[in-house]
Amino acid sequence: MDGTLVDSEKLWDVAMDALYDRLGGVLTPEVRASTVGGCAENTMRIVYDDLGLPLDLAAMAGSARWLHDYTAGLFDAGLPWCEGARELLDGLTAAAVPMALVTNTPRVLAERAVNTIGRHYFAAVVCGDEVPHGKPAPDPYLRAAGLLELDPRWCLAVEDSPTGAAAAEAAGCAVLVAPNAIPVPPGPRRRQVTTLAGLEPAHLAEIHADLAGPQRAVAGNRRDCR
């Protein structure tokens, strides 16, 4: 969602700067990069380690709630689409391709973004606070594939961050990477593009076929998912 469909990573930058100010520190680009695409628990651990604060679970949970509340206010002001994302969703919907939205963002905040994106696109929405472990663990993508009643190997994940790409790959998905805020390392089951603009369902099917190789299921049964 963040950085793939809507260009909300810049809003998370603002919110993270505000959290650091609240905690008495200054956020560096390196630390911010390490939190992109991360779940709340991992992000707070990085923040508290960076600031030399005790890893108090209650305090970290309180900071996460504050961060999400602050970000919600920014989301409500409007979320700009990433280039080509809306057109790709429209094309996939017209082609009857089942899609799931898979995000580390908590449900209460993700719902506000989905209102902007359009919930009619997705057969399922999986949020970071609804699985045992968020990205980079495979749990969110495994749950999404299960909700779509698909083997993860039949799915194409579209990601923008190292954390998200690692999660999808660990779940068994092929991965289309469109980097946003930070570079994403290459991998044998990853295809990189500079933008989603101009991509159509047929392109995604070709990318999945190339990446899936011998793991690909029977072509007549294979479906690509987002």
Give an account of the 3D structure:
There is one protein chain. With 226 residues, the chain is mainly alpha-helical. Helices cover 47% and strands 8% of the residues. A 3-stranded parallel β-sheet has the order 3-4-5. Helix 6 (107-117) links the parallel strand 1 and strand 2 (124-126). The radius of gyration is 17 Å and the shape is globular. Residues 216-226 have low confidence and may be disordered.
Mean pLDDT: 91
Q: Biggest sheet, strands in spatial order?
A: 3-4-5
> What's the helix count?
9
Order of helices and strands: HHHHHEHEHEHEEH
Which structural class do the helices and strands define?
mainly alpha
What distance separates the N and C termini?
A: 10 Å
Helix content: 40-55%
The dominant shape is globular
Tell me about the largest β-sheet: 3 strands, parallel
Q: Tell me the β content.
A: 5-15%
SSE blueprint and pairings:
Layout: H1 9-23, H2 29-35, H3 40-51, H4 57-76, H5 85-94, E1 100-102, H6 107-117, E2 124-126, H7 139-147, E3 156-159, H8 162-171, E4 174-177, E5 190-192, H9 201-212
Parallel strand pairs: 1-2, 3-4, 4-5
Helix pairs in contact: 1-4, 3-4
